[in-house]
Design a protein that fits this description.
alpha/beta, eight-stranded mixed beta sheet
Length: 158
Amino acid sequence: MGAAYFYHLTHTPLEHTLPMLLEKARGAGWRVAVRGREAAHLDKLDEALWLAGGEEAFLPHGRADQPHEADQPILLTTGADMPNGATCLMAVDGANVDPAEVARLDRVCVVFDGNDEAAVAHARVQWKALTDAGCAAQYWSEASGRWEKKAEKAAASA
């Protein structure tokens, strides 16, 4: 059973944080799906990933519904399916996460903009829904200027 990690962004925008999280996930050997709600914002993230880190830190990725989507180690999608066989899901922009996904995957990351009250409120609803369903969860904040774990909930025993 995996866990849901919530990342509360306050200093660094998603376009800069996402590449760091993706590098860590790839370093763990995970295939990743980045799930957003709007194709237009995924276009911006796609561009940011192409530019992140230059040639030495290239993050191989692609878009869902494009040729070779199943071969992509990082797949940007608005859909619930993960044709690349992802073992890690990164939900951005309030994308939905199901408790069954947390149980099935190695890691689920919920990344949200702490400067957007609606995004914070939605993340709180997601935290409650996932933890009430018995999922393990951690809450990380960069409010102090560096990442700190602020809360943790263990998985409920079956």
